[in-house]
Amino acid sequence: MKKNNTVSLQEYNTFGVAVSTPLFVEIKSSLALQEKLKDEAFKDALILGGGSNILFLADLSKPVIKISIPGIRIMNETEQIAVVSAGAGVVWHDLVMWCVANNLGGIENLSLIPGLVGAAPIQNIGAYGVELSDVFYDAVCINRKTGESRIFNAEDCDFGYRDSAFKNDLKDAYVVTAVRLALTKKNHRLKTDYGNVNETLVQMGVTKPNIEDVAKAVVQIRTSKLPDPKKLGNAGSFFKNSIVPKGKCARLLLKYPNMPHYHIDGAFDKIPAGWLIEQAGFKGLKKGKVGMHDKQALVLVNYGTSSGKLLWKHAKLVMEGVEKKFGISLEPEVNLIS
Ligand code: EPU
């Protein structure tokens, strides 16, 4: 869709924010990407995957390279393990479904996470007790300056909670073109004790779950709590859960004995930001066409044609409310692009 020689990005971001770019190209192979990176006009381009973890604050002055590199295949295998390679442009959930259909275990808990494969290592996607780093083999990346291909193993990626080197030291330095995962072919290690996965399996009448059952349970939980970006603009969790010093968590527990919290290590605990936002009174509260979702307070929702600026304004209001009530600064999980 073009207006005044610019290209609209509305259908390329799950918030559905109508911003534009002066130049847009879709790339379907790593060779084509290497060529495009040589082109001066695309030097500072924004690399876009599924647009499911970004909030555009204004029209872009820079070009956009949309990564649509396809393909899923088994790269090599032993009796126990298969290494599956997926192009950066593969829809993440399609990869999960492909693996489940081929009886390859390890990512069934990550069903229905929006976005494309290429973005998965950037923020080390995770859900229901599993993170990408648990199954990550390596990623093929292209150096944006030199066009050279390099393979990053897990150590190079320096994964953390919703974090990796690609968000820090290597920010904007590489483009991921393929991700390879080491998955189990048998004796799958199911993780069902997180949240209400077990409970959902019981409700489904499943007593001896396989990876397909776990995927189905996760899909059921996610669809019951999280809004479908095709119907309501959103980017999943807008904030990260809060990591706070143990002393701070203990002080808050004296005042709020029912506050959910999780042990991280000897020094820190994690407090769910969704709980903080709900307690601060923002869950389901709409301001015009913006609000935090009524079933999961961590999800910022575009209920209409809200601009990125209005969405961000609301997010800041929520941050102020939580800061005032709990003395905790929420950190956006979604990337803000201006
Ligand atoms: N909670 C509330 N109110 C809410 C939401 C949550 O009190 O409105 C409480 C829940 O009762 C529970 C706790 O917060 O005690 C945790 O809630 P939940 O299990 O729903 O998960 P979350 O911590 O809010 C994280 C991820 C999600 C992921 C789920 C399940 C982050 C930022 N978010 O949410 O990831 O699906 O766990 O594993 O870590 C995403 O990244 O986009 C995303 C959706």
Structural class: alpha+beta
Based on the structure given, which CATH architecture of the largest domain is correct? Answer: 2-Layer Sandwich
Q: Could you tell me the radius of gyration in angstroms?
A: 20 Å
Order of helices and strands: EEEEHEEEEEHEEEEHEHHEEHEEHEEEHE
User: Could you give the count of β-strands?
Assistant: 22
Cα shape = globular
Oligomeric state as shown: single chain
Strand content: 25-35%
Q: What is the C-level CATH assignment of the largest domain?
A: Alpha Beta
* Tally of DSSP helical segments: 8
Tell me the strand order in the biggest sheet.
Answer: 8-9-14-12-13
- What number is the mean pLDDT? 96
Tally of distinct domains: 3
Main beta-sheet annotation: 5 strands, antiparallel
Query: What is the CATH fold-level name of the largest domain?
Result: Uridine Diphospho-n-acetylenolpyruvylglucosamine Reductase, domain 3
Helix content: 10-25%
